[in-house]
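Subject: sequence -> structure tokens, single chain

Hey, anyone have a minute? Need the predicted structure for the following. Not urgent.
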Amino acid sequence: MVTQPDIEDKERIDMRVQVMAELDRPSKKMAQRFEVVDTAGNKFPLTIWKNNALSDFDWELEQWYKLENAGGNVFQGEKSLNGSSRLRATPIDPPKEIAQNKQLFEAVEDGLPYLSLYPIDSDFAELSVYEYQIQAEGTFDDSPMDATYDLAAYLRKCTDSLVTHAGALNIVSTGRMSVELPDPFVLAEEQQTALRAAERRENNQIERLLKHALKRAVDEDTYEAQKINRILERDPVIVGSDSLFEACLAYEARIELFPSGDAFVGVEVRYHTRSQITVNEYVDQVDADIEDFVDTPVEHDPDTYDTPGSGTLKGFADAHFTDPLPELGNQSLADWYEQKGRISENLADELRDVDPQLVEINYDPDDDETDVHVPHLLRVAPRKEVVKAVAPKFHREWDQSAKMLPNERFQKTTAFVQELGELPKVDAQVDPSPAGPSLSFMSAEVSRSNNLQFGDGRTAGVPRRGLQRHGVYEPPSNFHIHYLVPECVADEFETLRGRLERKLRDIKCPPDKKTYSEYELGKAIEYNEASAAIDDVDVALVVVPSPDADSITEGTIDDPYPEFKKAFGKQRIPTQMVRMTNLDNKWVTDNTALGLVAGAGGVPWRVGEMPGDVDCFVGLDATRDPASGQFLGASANVVLADGTVFVSKTQSLQSGETFDEDAIVDVLKDIHREFVRAEGRSPESIVIHRDGRLFEDVGKILEPFAETEIDIDILDIRKSGAPRAAVREDGDFKIDNKGRLFVAKHGDYGFLTTTGRPEFDESDGLGTPRALRVVRRSGDTPMATLLKQVYWLSESHIGSAQRSTRLPVTTYYADRCADHARRGFLLNGELIRGVPYV
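Reply:
Had a minute. Here:
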């Protein structure tokens, strides 16, 4: 369906629109001007000029028209329609999809907030299943758990029941199993039982069964559903004019199952790009040397090559398609393909005639080994930088379409849910009405009025206004700034320095002392000498080149950024780093100034009244190696009840240490001790924010504090996979105010928006705000109070005076602290005062 994103400047287009309202005519050459809406809900102007056809046409408000030969207009990125000498307008009935949308949203009320969550119309407090033990009548190679995964998948293919694992060599199924398993396994000890959503382990099993049911409910003719978080429409919606790339709609679905038994399907929609360009075509079209293509992501072309695979391009090989290769026993790749039947005979003959030069491909990023391949059989993976270079027109349309506003986003997700079939074996259907305030969810909005404190205790609603009017809440007790600048940009730096010092004066926090030195871009050892000469300062501002500067990438100089970060970290001097490319960028001034204030120990602003009775918050980030899954350590960031950072620590595990909980408890004990030393008393209430999902044993974390009177709440703060939020106004979904919260009726689950109005709305083109998912793992504080605390901690970011940051300062700073420690910028295992990682 043709909609606003399809408009191209000065190109004729046919489109169906509804005339909504008459607009002002800023030019005397305009005959008529209207606000129109397309079938996707996009609103934009239609301008009829006096020299156009239909300049005196009698347009009717609320009427739908089929426009033919309208003129496309794109100005400052905004797309609209003009008339033309051949414009035609035919009144039509409301399009079918509009009638469907009205029917879809009959249960949606104006003035209420909604989430892109869709309720399942059955109660899953208990689910009747059959449980089986798997016995082995012989040896097997896989681990017991891997064997269980494989056997559960095998049973799902062989039966129409829903099957999932329930531990090593145990499965549960919605139906009785009578299928024989592959040798050496047999099903034994059948037992009919009920899974309970209130039990965490059983809740996970019900959730997995519902995922399999949801996948079966997807129409295979319309969608390709590999997993429920990767559901692709088969037909493209954006096709590049050069046919190098195409984009289809992709849906990510997830199951939200509450302990109460209420279940929802969360749906996210995006544009998925598919490549149609092979490596040889890419090399021909991009004017560059082969070295410029190194590390370009590539994938086997599914239309010409039977075996799937992906890797990175490493350059041309010395051999061609028909040349003998030692690694293939001195036969050619052409002969090898013929024996293996990897490509068709006709394609093999064509490639023999062309005899292309082969390319080197690396399939394993952890290994330097490469394999040869034919560039004609490889597609360039559609990474954004590749698409932008090869197909800029397609990239612009793709990029603009990706930032979907609430009305379009909710229409697409709701239409997707409406097309789902019944969830098999659980007698359930997904309701195509998004979740709003209901018996399942209580909704409220955080009162944001003047709860941030600045100089002299004065208050304001947003940081920027408070800093302008009242200055910082608490200047550093000593504020000696040292500037360290490359010799080659000394003159350019003076502009930034002038702006910076004016800003510090404006926020009533001028430095006590300023010193300056220069260094020469060169080798790491020279950077060490430059940093060693600096002592007895409170904070350093260091100017460095961008990491992708030619002098760094070509190896002419060492990158000074990590060297200075490590050196000053060991000297316990906080730093603010400024890229040379940003010296004339006035927008970096505010954040840099606030970073210097905080680095020297000042407090730019604080939260006036924090909801609930809490002494401090602990942001916890337990890190793992993504390749091995091995636990590496824990970092914690302690924030006082007013939102100010108290102390941080990172604890890395040494060889042989394996217990996550021990490292976390060690960090918490240190924090407790420091709080007692600073405040003269033990904290009575601590709220722990875990970055992401808490996999650690909650009981073991709480055990050392069991005999104390400290109340501890533990929350998961999950930023990925959370639903979108919007408010329904005048029949459309629109960007809601930030600070919107939803609390599930059972009280241990909620969602919160920390971005949105008044900071941005539909006119900013930033898309639809995504909520945070907050799950309480222990504690008794009301969930609404905990969500409000998370909101105010998201308003406490040092250096974010212009716009709210999505994450609370607790988990965001814990992650930053951990990252700096991993890179050697902080002293591991020691308590860290201030915020040198910001």
